[in-house]
UniProtKB/TrEMBL annotation:
Transmembrane segments: 93-110
Membrane topology: Multi-pass membrane protein
Domain of life: Bacteria
Keyword DNA-binding tagged: no
One GO term (biological process): transmembrane transport
Protein name, as recorded: Amino acid ABC transporter membrane protein 1 (PAAT family)
Broad class of the protein's primary localization: membrane
Subcellular location: Cell membrane
Family membership noted in the UniProt record: Belongs to the binding-protein-dependent transport system permease family.
The ABC transmembrane type-1 domain, residue ranges: 1-111
Organism: Bradyrhizobium daqingense
Keyword terms: Membrane, Transmembrane, Transmembrane helix, Transport
């Protein structure tokens, strides 16, 4: 639930960040409001929202308690169970840490790739 609220806020901010001149120009050319939204506002807002959406997704992944909802056991919970059986604290949580790092790195790399592919010259800086 909290992830949905954050995602909603990310997209609201992205729609507000669309330059008003773009919308005004489309309306001046005679595009109806819905067509302006589909052709101008939506593509620009989606490009702007990529970074915030990725950040929220990584935060949800790191929190990982939402995974219980979809049927998977939480990684930290599993690590605690292994520690209680084997008493190998550093090894177990070291591996759990590496798994979180790998998952977050993959999400970040995919986001950067997606952001570069959708980049429009003059609309923000993508490195």
């Amino acid at each position: 639930m909290w992830g949905g609220a954050y995602q909603t806020e990310v997209f609201r901010a992205a729609f507000e960040a669309v330059p008003k001149g773009e919308v005004t120009a489309a309306r001046a050319l005679g595009l109806p409001a819905f067509q302006t939204f589909l052709d101008i506002t939506l593509p620009i807002a989606l490009r702007i929202a990529i970074t915030g959406t990725t950040t929220t997704a990584i935060t949800q992944f790191r929190s990982s308690s939402f995974m219980i909802v979809v049927g998977y056991q939480e990684l930290t919970y599993v690590a605690n169970r292994i520690v209680s059986d084997t008493f190998k604290v550093f090894e177990t949580f070291g591996i759990a840490c590496l798994m979180y790092l790998l998952g977050c790195s993959i999400l970040s790399a995919l986001s950067r790739t997606f952001e570069r592919r959708l980049a429009v010259p003059g609309l923000g800086v993508v490195k």
